[in-house]
Amino acid sequence: MTVTGIDVSSAQSEKYPTAGSDFVFIKVTEGTTYTNPKWVAQRKTARNAGLVTGFYHFARPGPVTSQVDFFLSKINLIEGDILILDWEDARVPNSWKDSWLKQVQQRTPGHKTLLYCNRDFWLHRDTTSFAGDGLWIAQYNNKPGQPDIHSAWLFHQHTDRPIDTSIGKFEDKAALHTWSGHVAIPA
After folding, report:
1. pLDDT tens per residue across span 123-136
2. Is 88 an annotated catalytic residue?
3. Are 35 and 53 in contact, with CB atoms under 8 Å apart?
4. CA–CA separation, 130 vs 4, rounded Å?
5. Using an 8 Å Cβ cutoff, are 133 and 112 in contact?
6. b/e for 65-99, b at 16 or more Cβ within 10 A?
7. Has residue 187 got a pLDDT over 50?
8. Belongs to which family (predicted)?
């Protein structure tokens, strides 16, 4: 595995470093009231660097469809954009997680949909093993590409120093581009 990338939110700069990255996942929304004020500039940084780009929504308790609507209303999707649910709030049940992923898949055909969660959520809260088109698992174990789970995964977030960094389970950058359907965007 040689594909690496980072996770950015409002805690990072609009012009974060992209050298050595093949992808970036950007926080866009949370619940139905919060939008990352930097996400558009962060998307521009990613696209100017030719990175495969994903966008994520941080789940909060509340109506699923309202959060899907809020998230999708913010993004002008292009081919290859990946859509991600960030499942970290213990008050959000497994059924909610499954519904969000399925609604986003139905409403955005042709786009990959991922579930992001930590190892504890995956092993102790998940009851269906449904992760959309793939699992992005967080476990800071100092073993990139070796999360301590037996389930299939596509991305492993293995450290948060100096920034949240993940490795992708792809042979190379070309395989990641093919999987995501990414197209090069002129700078």
Report:
1. 999 999 999 999 99
2. yes
3. no
4. 24
5. yes
6. eebbebbbeebeeeebbbbbbbbeeeebeeebbbb
7. no
8. Belongs to the glycosyl hydrolase 25 family.
pLDDT digits (tens, 9 = 90+) for 145-185: 999 999 999 999 999 888 899 999 999 999 999 999 987 65
H-helix or E-strand containing 83?
Answer: strand 82-86
Q: Catalytic: which of 7, 22, 86, 164?
A: 7
Q: Is the pLDDT of residue 76 over 50?
A: yes
Instruction: Give me the sign of the Cα torsion angle 118, 183, 74, 45.
Output: positive
Helix (H, G, I), strand (E, B) or coil at 145: coil
SS3 152: coil
Beta strands 3-8 and 155-159: pairing type? unpaired
30 is catalytic: no
Which domains, ranges and CATH numbers included, belong to the chain? 3-181 (3.20.20.80)
Q: Please give the model's pTM, rounded to 2 decimal places.
A: 0.95
Of 14, 88, 89, 133, catalytic = 88
